[in-house]
Design goal:
The chain has 590 residues and is α/β, with parallel strands linked by helices. The protein has an eight-stranded mixed sheet, sandwiched between helices. It has a six-stranded mixed sheet with strand order 4-5-6-7-8-9.
């Protein structure tokens, strides 16, 4: 798939703004003839911005100069781009400093000062700092180090025109929000998270929580009803203070909190200056218009990088998630639950399966295609997550994928089902067609802390209630309770001890009394090691029996996966047994 930069290069060459040399390794800017190495990430930023200056900002290419030497400077210093008011290039108008995308906030602040310094030397009224989609345009004369926002304008003028109050407007052919590619979106997420993490001032999970709130506001603002030409609220106005930006964004958040208390529980806990910077990172991009695959993979990769080593227990590797979901035959009218949903991976892969079906069934009917998978997302996907912060991440993940967040709740899935039903009537016994889950391993549920233990069959030892029981064992019973009798199916990750230890025979007996074992797929010991768990595990697939159903002897599909698409270090492995096992399982079922 062609990314944004590749498209700009192609268009730039076609329109005569660039010429490429050495198989695309070198770029020549036209008409100046200036040549640079295109492998330099900073040069890629400059090339894209040069293209925008000529096309969207409508400045004549003959009035744009690159690498302009600063007079009377030792050592020598150059401005990356200078736009002039005249054909003779005697009157500088805008000085641009370009930096690679993904630089730190501190580096960006330093770059803005460099842009201002160059603009002052050249007596240019405007300076602009560009680092990918993070940009800051300033009026040179009124800029000062202590209150830079007083000189910050929403963007440089278009074609020597007046400074506007807002830049990004709905339906504007040039200035509506930009559809992002995967790399751009992941970088924007990463920069925002880094701003909020503030070099360790916040715990990574706390920073992620605040990031989730801001993303909610961004998506809500994009979907808000407004006329063509009306500005978006999630952007920085000309001469706007950080406090003003905070007030406007926080008002949207507070309204959302009131409307959707299950998602929004706490207030926004960021400093105005931090929020201002995050808005700079995100304001130009559209989350709602960017296609589902792009934003889904970008967010998933970003989360995967974040969760590794920080909150790995909330993240199941996508190779295993994808395999577990594909082993089941989920359709758009099925009810799907993950009672330990973490960041929502199993639910989203189930959604992806249904989206693929929509593509096949309604190839030429976009409205029916959308209805088929969107109804499923909104009404049929259910998740429970005990950690409220991670539950919010799962909800955000669902919203980024075009909703379904209302059926994700922050709750202890092992607690009384009636309590969940009170929160959302969709959570009921004997209701779900499919459960796909990777429950938490190893933790003990103590009777003294959790009186609900005595209500579990697997919480008993003969006629007595056990003093404690492992979470993964209780999850087996709870999942079976949720499944539809006779047809409900489950895919669950279980430690191999449950399948082999003689002391846990009573758990296996319970499982076989109430379900038909369909398949057991053994995973390598490193399968979850990179995500904080080094327990040898298997994926177990079962069907819930009808009350009184007797099966007699039956065949169970068994497989061992030695290779699963990644190694113990997390590095990609070209070998992957899972697709072959999937194929063999479908043959076995026939």
């Amino acid at each position: 798939m062609e990314n944004t930069f590749e498209k700009i290069l192609k268009d730039g060459v076609a329109k005569g703004y660039f010429r490429l040399h050495n198989d695309g390794a070198k770029i020549e800017y036209l008409p100046s003839g200036h040549k640079e190495n295109l492998k330099d990430p900073e040069e890629r930023v400059r090339a894209e911005y040069y293209f925008n200056l000529v096309t969207k900002y409508r400045y004549p290419a003959k009035r744009i100069e690159l690498e302009v030497e600063m007079p009377d400077r030792t050592p020598e210093r150059y401005a990356d781009i200078v736009i002039y008011e005249d054909d003779a290039k005697q009157k500088p108008y805008i000085v641009v400093e370009c930096k690679k995308d993904g630089i730190s906030d501190a580096e960006f602040e330093q770059a803005t000062k460099q842009a201002i310094a160059n603009a002052r030397v050249l007596h240019s009224p405007y300076a602009n700092c560009v680092a990918g989609n993070t940009r800051r345009a300033m009026e040179t004369a009124i800029w000062n180090d202590k209150e830079p926002e007083k000189a910050t304008i929403t963007d440089i003028p278009i074609s020597y025109g007046k400074i506007e109050e807002f830049r990004y407007k709905k339906g504007d052919p040039d200035w509506d929000l930009k559809v992002a590619d995967r790399t751009e979106l992941k970088l924007a997420f990463q920069k925002s998270q880094d701003t909020l993490w503030a070099g360790g001032k916040r715990a990574p999970t706390t920073a992620f929580d605040e990031f989730a709130k801001i993303i909610f506001v961004k998506i809500r603002d994009e979907k808000k009803g407004r006329k063509t030409g009306d500005p978006y609220d999630f952007q920085i106005k000309t001469h706007e203070s950080a406090e003003s930006v905070y007030k406007r964004i926080n008002a949207i958040y507070e309204e959302a909190k009131e409307r959707d208390p299950e998602v929004f529980k706490e207030s926004l806990k960021v400093e105005p200056e931090e929020l201002y910077t995050v808005v700079e990172h995100l304001q130009a991009l559209s989350l709602s218009k960017t296609d589902l695959d792009t934003k889904g993979v970008a967010f998933e990769q970003f989360m995967e990088d974040f969760f590794k080593g920080k909150s790995g227990q909330y993240f199941t590797p996508r190779e295993i998630v994808n395999f577990a979901v594909k082993m089941m035959d989920i359709k758009n009218d099925d009810l799907v639950l993950d009672p330990a949903c973490g960041s929502g991976g199993f639910l989203l892969h189930a959604l992806d399966e249904v989206r693929q079906q929509a593509e096949e069934y309604y190839e030429d009917d976009e409205a029916e295609k959308f209805r088929y998978w969107h109804d499923f997302a909104q009404n049929n996907l259910f998740g429970i997550e005990i950690n409220d912060s991670i539950a919010r991440v799962a909800k955000m993940n669902m919203i980024i994928h075009d909703d379904g967040h209302t059926n994700v709740i922050g709750h202890d899935a092992l607690n009384d089902i009636e309590r969940m039903t009170a929160k959302n009537p969709g959570f009921a016994r004997n209701r779900f067609d499919f459960i796909v889950t990777n429950p938490p391993f190893g933790a003990n549920v103590k009777r003294s802390e959790h009186p609900y233990l005595e209500k579990y069959v697997l919480g008993q030892n003969g006629k007595k209630t056990r003093n404690n029981q492992k979470t993964e064992i209780l999850f087996i019973e709870r999942c079976i309770e949720f499944l539809k009798p006779g047809t409900g199916q489950m895919a669950i990750v279980l430690p191999d001890g449950i399948l082999t230890n003689s002391s846990l025979q009573y758990v296996r007996d319970f499982l076989m009394e109430r379900t038909q074992i369909l398949a057991v797929v053994s995973m390598p010991i490193f399968a979850f090691a990179h995500y904080g768990a080094a327990v040898k595990s298997s994926l177990v697939f079962v069907r819930k029996k009808e009350v009184g159903e007797k099966l007699g002897k039956y065949k169970i599909f068994m497989a061992i996966a030695d290779h699963i698409g990644y190694e113990a270090t997390g590095k990609l492995d070209p070998k992957n047994d899972l697709p072959i096992i999937l194929e063999k399982y479908h043959e076995f079922k026939k």
